[in-house]
Design goal:
about 55% helix; alpha/beta
Length: about 550
């Protein structure tokens, strides 16, 4: 049962739709007064009454029933207690019926969400700075798909610019095909780094010429570029596979080379392009922003030009409901300019473009300081977490079968959860010890909770889960059941806020409540009727927690 909707349908506030009332109903941080609460402050102006009076009047006309056991008013809040037995039965039966689909919905049917994320650069290895965009985008992909949307994952490759002319020049001077084939992207990156430190003026001119050849379709130059691109994708796809991340399109900047001119022409036709020091810009001063550069003085395009062309293409190709850009907050201005230019062009769908900004990632030793020239490869971080996880497993459960496979799930899960647990806009200091802790707010803790529940389920094979019509529900059971009932709302909230941390925090909260239940309540040794009820709670927790972690891209070992 959707308890928020049920409660909202009981409430009548003049001029306020039931859906708006439902959106205001929340689970209070302190549940001493109730299981759900409706703040009445939003209604005060329209009804010309105090929130306290509104809450008291509503409480007087809503009668308890077999779902709502108590209604009360306090300090402008309308509080509801849910019938414990009814909540337990309806929630556990729903989870048993829906299984891996529990928490999903069909609210996105017929709507397409485009998500632009990860966006790696050709010929450069994946560093830890790419972690957030990759796992946030990957989680949003899964969350929206779970809610019934058609999702298009886009890896907007960084595959355009003079750096590729430099790369070809470096390869021509110092490269060795056998070495590049053997060491792949790292050998290519070394060539690029060497060019930037050793290139002569003649080589710089040569690089510009090679880039011109790429743009003009020269066969030899493009064959080299395509080789570098293939090596890059071969390397990054191994990491994507480990992270459980997928894409439906790898159309990068280069793809839009022949799609920019129509946009530029439209900007001219609508009188939006102005000359500024030889460059072509859209003046955004009236909107509190610097001008948006469209063409440099030499006629070259810029990020904004290609992003405008990409936006046109995506709308025409996918007719998206929303188009998300999972890009660091340093690009806030760029996206404000991009969306404003689309708005000035008269594109009503500009309102459907969303910049999902996130903070930066560094290690505890500050190893992502670009000023110090330090770069940490994401693959090394994942491998280190997996190796550390293996050591912990060896200490805790040396006889565990498939230890390497379990360590992979635990290590990779720790990396993902560590990047997703906090609000996405916060900067993250990545700690190996913290993310791999079996205690506290970690992915490992949630995985271990699943393993604990799975152990109980395994020992209870063949035992009844039949629930009594009017079960007695103690405090620990009720806290778990309330958390289980809240999962569909958590999924919707994560989608509404573009915030996977909602799911990560939910997983920790459910794990904490289940573990308290596990330690405070007998399960397997309880009397038959109570045992059936507690086994059903354990089954439901395992299903729901696995569903939550899967939306984050985290696998669950059966044993740990």
């Amino acid at each position: 049962m959707d308890y928020k909707k049920y409660i909202a349908d009981k409430i009548s506030v003049e001029g306020v739709p039931s859906a708006d009332i439902e959106s205001l109903i929340a689970v209070p941080p302190n549940t001493d007064m109730g299981d759900y609460a409706l703040p009445c402050f939003r209604f005060a102006k329209a009804l010309k009454k105090s929130p306290v009076a509104i809450a008291q009047e509503l409480a007087a006309v809503i009668s308890p029933d077999d779902v709502i056991s108590e209604v009360s008013a306090l300090n402008g809040y309308l509080n509801f207690r849910i019938d414990k037995a009814g909540l337990l039965r309806s929630t556990l039966l729903r989870i048993e019926t829906e299984g891996a689909d529990y928490g999903s919905a069909h609210i996105g049917e017929g709507k397409t969400i485009c998500i632009d994320y990860s966006s790696v650069n050709i010929a450069k290895p994946f560093h830890i700075g790419h972690l957030s965009t990759t796992v946030i985008g990957g989680a949003l992909y899964k969350i929206f798909a779970f809610l019934g949307y058609k999702v298009v994952g886009i890896n907007h490759l960084g595959d355009y610019g003079t750096q590729f002319g430099k790369l070809i020049s470096a390869y021509k001077h110092w490269g060795n095909r056998e070495d590049v084939e053997k060491r792949g992207i790292f050998a290519v990156n070394e060539l690029y780094v060497r060019f930037n430190s050793e290139a002569t003026e003649e080589m710089e001119a040569e690089a510009r010429e090679y880039f011109r050849l790429i743009e003009n379709g020269d066969k030899a130059a493009n064959e080299l570029f395509d080789w570098f691109k293939a090596l890059t994708l071969k390397y990054v796809n191994k990491i994507y596979d480990r992270l459980g991340v997928k894409f439906d399109s790898y159309n990068g900047e280069r793809f839009y080379t022949d799609k920019m001119q129509p946009v530029i022409d439209e900007l001219k036709e609508k009188g939006l392009l102005k000359e500024s020091n030889g460059a072509q810009v859209v003046d955004l001063e009236a909107y509190g922003m610097p001008p948006c550069l469209i063409l440099r003085s030499d006629g070259a395009s810029l990020y904004a030009t290609r992003d405008l062309a990409a936006a046109y293409y995506r709308k025409a190709t996918y007719d998206f409901y929303k188009c998300l850009y999972v890009v660091a907050y340093q690009q806030n201005l760029h996206f404000k300019q991009l969306f404003k230019v689309l708005e000035l062009l008269g594109k009503e769908w500009a309102k459907d473009m969303v910049h999902v900004a996130y903070g930066m990632v560094s290690l505890e030793d500050g190893a992502m300081s670009t000023r110090k020239g330090k770069v940490v490869w994401l693959e090394d971080v994942i491998n280190k977490c997996v190796e550390k996880a293996l050591k912990v497993i060896d200490e805790k459960n040396p006889d565990l079968a498939d230890k390497r496979e379990v360590a992979e799930k635990v290590g990779v899960g720790a990396v993902i959860f560590g990047a997703l647990y906090n609000n996405k806009i916060k900067d993250i200091v990545f700690s190996y010890d913290k993310v791999l802790s079996f205690e506290g707010e970690t992915g490992v803790y949630c995985q271990y909770t699943c393993a604990r529940a799975n152990s109980v389920v395994g020992k209870a094979e063949g035992m009844s889960r039949e629930l009594p019509e009017k079960p007695d529900v103690n405090a620990e059971e009720f806290e778990v059941v309330k958390a289980l009932a809240a999962f569909p709302d958590a999924v919707k909230e994560a989608a509404d806020k573009y915030e996977p941390s909602v799911i990560a925090r939910y997983a920790v909260d459910l794990s904490q409540k289940f573990n308290k239940f596990y330690f405070e309540c007998k399960i397997l040794s309880a009397e038959e009727g109570v045992r059936a009820q507690r086994l059903a709670i354990t089954d439901a927790t395992l299903i729901t927690l696995k569903n939550a972690l899967s939306l984050l891209g985290i696998g669950v070992p059966e044993k740990m």
